[in-house]
Amino acid sequence: MDNDNKPIIIGCDHGGYLLKEKIRQYLIERGIDINDVGTYSEDSVDYADFGIKASKMVATGEYERGILLCGTGLGMSMVANKFPHVRAALCNDLFSAIMSRRHNNSNILVMGGRVIGEELARQIVKAWLETPFDGGRHQLRINKFDRIEEMM
Q1: Cα distance between residue 50 and residue 133, in whole Å
Q2: Is 70 a catalytic site residue?
């Protein structure tokens, strides 16, 4: 639970809004400070705008972790992974959430608001927050990610 109480950046588009509100409340109940960059309604918006806001803050180190939601999670994943030092993982199941932390040290959790329900989303967030990175050989792989970013 090393990151369980650190502040988290959270964002969504209209397709992830309802689930974001449930997850936001869950994080508040756990005593986690949140910076909610929107959106704040179900009115249609461009997911990229909110993905960029949150991902930039993780990429620069302002936040260690973030959570993004859109209808499927696909668009937010694509946007987030454009940023250096971001390892966004689309996790619409519990196993992926755990492994994204253990093996990939994911720092942005992405979920599809139209794909999963509230209870599963809460379980995914809990597992993602509480699962530590294994390091070791997995860190060597992450170092390769960093070298790709340096080549660009």
Answers
A1: 27
A2: yes
